[in-house]
Amino acid sequence: MEQKIAAVSLKNITKTFGPVVANEKVNLDIYKGEILALLGENGSGKTTLMNMLSGIYFPDEGQIFIDGKEAVIKSPKDAFDLGIGMVHQHFKLIDVLTATENIVLGMEGKLNLKDAAVKIQQICEKYGFEVDPNQKIYDMSVSQKQTVEIVKVLFRGANILILDEPTAVLTPQETEKLFSVLRKMREDGKAIVIITHKMHEVESLSDRVAVLRRGCYIGDMMTKDTNAAEMTNMMVGRQVSLNIVRPMPINPKPRIKVDGLTVRSEDGIVKLNDVSFTANSGEILGIAGISGCGQKELLEAIAGLQPAEAGSITYINEDGESEELLGKDPRKIADLGVALSFVPEDRLGMGLVGNMDLTNNMLLRSFRKGRSVFTDRKAPRQLAEKVVEELDVVTPGISTPVRRLSGGNVQKILVGREIASAPTVLLTAYAVRGLDINSSYTIYDLINKQKMKGVAVIFVGEDLDVLLEISDRILVLCGGSVSGIVDGRKTTKAEVGSMMTLIGGDKNNEEK
Amino acid sequence: MIDLVAFIPRAVVQGIPLLFGSTGETLTEKSGNLNLGIPGVMYVGAISGVIGSFFYEQSVAKGGTMNGFLAVMIPLLCSLLGSLLMGLLYCFLTVSLRANQNVTGLAMTTFGIGFGNFFGGSLIKLSKSDVPSIALSATSNYFSKSLPFAGDFGWFGKIFLSYGFLAYVGIIIALIASFVLNHTRVGLHLRAVGEGPNTADAAGINVIRYKYVATCVGCMIAGLGGLYYVMDYACGVWSNDAFGDRGWLAIALVIFTIWRPNVGVFSSILFGGLYILYLYIPSGMDHMEFKELYKMIPYIVTLVVLVITSMRSKRESQPPASLGLSYFREER
Fold this sequence. Notes:
By secondary structure, chain A is of the alpha/beta class. Chain A has 16 helices and 20 strands.
């Protein structure tokens, strides 16, 4: 390795939460003028490790050296003083305050928002950010919020920047913009650590990768000397195949027909505007769009959870008989075989009850079926056992509250339960949100199996690469309207990306 | 019709204890602590002042003259100390031990009122008084002393200058609190703690310290409301349970003012007015039940405000986002 200065070195760091060992004897060096990608499966302790650098957690054992000197980071304030800044996965911003107020939060001295705003403008110009210092956070888009987070860190003069899954919520364009900013910072001599699950980002951005597995440090390597398969193998600890299979649809027949669907939110904002499409059996229909473009409303309208203002949703069964879904009770729709698995940002918000155990969460789907006054607990218990076994759910047992499981395992349970109900239509949104690469592929596999069974799958995803790989057709939403429907085998990332931001895309000739 | 020059000063003296209470509670709530113990704190603030001044008056009665400065400072400091201890107790339970805030608050209200009544009863025994109350009129004279020239200004003097010093202190504290919240770094940090303690913590703000300080200062301010009630409004007469439901009204007032102490100055007086409005509305002797209905007005107004603020759903008029939740940094 060339002559480089270690900005941070971690020596033998160990951290436990009760009986759970999150990090065990981790040794890691972070260099100036370098972007380090920190890789690992869900629950491998990446975030915990970085939280110890930023002062949220305190290590049980081990030492931290900053610029060669030993440092004790007891609180986030200590971290700031040492020039360490972290952009957390869940933004640490106060909604009702303005960008400036959030940025100066926690700093000392007399409050002077005007001067701070000027300094913020200077930082923005230097790196090419766009921030309105007086805008309230709740008025901002996700990418704007993230920009505020990064400016906040820079404002304090951080030299060591940690980003925890910064691209999970960004569109490809926004991601590219963020990466160019990060490259500028690298040229500035800052040390940057990025946590991400997306391999192509690792390859395009980072100089070096470090891998954690089950809390232990496995090793590091220069990005240019490695590839996605090798990195994944290191993360998982065994050979993993990284190909999403896309079999040709077998005998596709229209299953769900949406016609002129218009949905308004409670505050009267139009969420879906005149949306029409057909989902076929045995086919995966991908839905692309910037988050909040009506994906959630669309799925909810189909599942009967969202009243529509106009339009129709028709369900066509195996024998060609059609039935109108709009205005139907969600339960009746579910009985027709429409299964919804929506994974919200907080993962537990919809579909699972955090404080209930696995069996009871399975019961939520089936409790109405029993004939006696007592619920039938046997079938759900068997189902829970089956899901745990087939999907490799890491859990102490089926009587563990779902809340205690890691995000990936929670998602496996949710998707597993929905699939177990033998649906004819599977609606899934953000099924792999925040999942590591290995668990993601398990889920893709499950979805593909459903497709082969002739289920009509509607797949809402945020990772365009995956969407392009798995979908037979892609419906692109832009601000609640259909921007176009493209063939998943023929389209490109750039085309879909531009359609996401502009109806019909740049060329404007693909208007339906 | 209602005689405004007579009505407004009555409304103001009714409103001041509420103003103290709501300013204190607003500061507390801004730190994310929902202190439902405010009625108890105000009660303790009052009885502590009474205890202080009772013993001072007793010692003076044995010989010597009353010193005006001491007559004010002793009850004042006793009251602050009493409510500070209540604040520390609340913080220790909810912040350090992370007990449920609602339960703790309600327990403190019950405790505070019991505490007040116990010592109030003991003092009444000690003073060997014939009536079930203690009169501290000498001390009260110092507290309710208004500006000597107030009478020279006619109606203006009556409405604006006829109050004891604590009333003005209450208004000044409310205005200072408002300024601190909106224009200083401490205020910004305090609001951040109430809105998102993990965000504040990640920004390097000492969440625990802010919660402790805001809650204790809030309790001390609220305690002064109790002191004002006994020493000025009630002319130094303590009788058990006379304080009534003013503490709850103060909490209602926090919602009414949408967490803004400066608005509290006017709305506390409005509440004070509504509180005694029934005395001024002629209802006749044969319809006493109407009086009871009029007494409900402040609560109904609070309900209406709650409905309106939640309907408008403006983000700024919502309670602090983490109100009522305890914070633990390493929670996963």
